[in-house]
Amino acid sequence: AMLAQAELQAGSGSALSSQRGDRMGVVLSRAELVRGLEPLSTYNVSSVRLIFQKFEEVCPAPALWERAFAELFSCFPTGEAATKAFMVLDTDGNGLIDARESIAGLAIVSKGHLSDRMRLLFDIFDLNGEKELHFDECFLMLRRSMAGLRKLTGIVTPPEKVVHNMTKQIWKSARKHRNNAIIHEDWQQWWTHDASMRSALKMVTWKPEEQRGLPTPDQQTNIDYTKSAGAGDDEVSAAVGQQLKRGSMLGQARSSLSATSFAKMC
Fold this sequence. Notes:
- This protein is mainly alpha-helical.
- It has helices at residues 45-58, 66-72, 79-89, 99-109, 114-124, 135-153, 160-174, 184-193, 195-201, 233-254, 261-265; strands at 16-18, 29-31, 63-64, 97-98, 132-133, 182-183.
- The strands form 3 sheets. It has a two-stranded antiparallel sheet.
- The chain is globular and about 50 Å long.
- The N and C termini lie far apart (36 Å).
């Protein structure tokens, strides 16, 4: 059930270049973008951060229309190519895609050191801009970024209870009560030392130097996240909904509705 060990969808336009992993005989594959999204592979982590900053500055809503998507992700050679890419990401066919989910998925698969990519992931879901994440925000970050990764690559994501268990482990690693927020250093401490997370990130590690300086396998901790999450899942889901509503309100308060055509398209 772990992301690192999840089966990979064949078909639906997804492609995977096979590479045999070196841990416990598990076959790991390097993720590739699904058909129609290949131009997104040109982005590095700095470029994705600029996309996120642009979204934060000028887009008043948490969702993107097709024209706003093409404006924000300008890597597509033609309007037709951008339209096809949007349709791939718009899995429910409602004419909208979740901006943070898409940018988070792109941050994970972008080129650059893993620490820079995971820092960007943290910032994307820091909805209040306070350089900290509360439990529901962190749960949202894991769940939505995995959903974005699934849409980009076809990788099957773990069940929600597994994601909940991972979130609880982050707080346990930080030695903090659930009512307290974590800071970036707590997030960094968890994902760099968590064996499941590091194994999963191998699928999006394009060069050896992208993980240089990170803890080695003998310094990592193995946790079985498939154990029952127990009570509280409904509370987490409700809190996540409140955070999404709050994030939308904050985005609207920060954004100017006057200036750019991009703001109008959002």
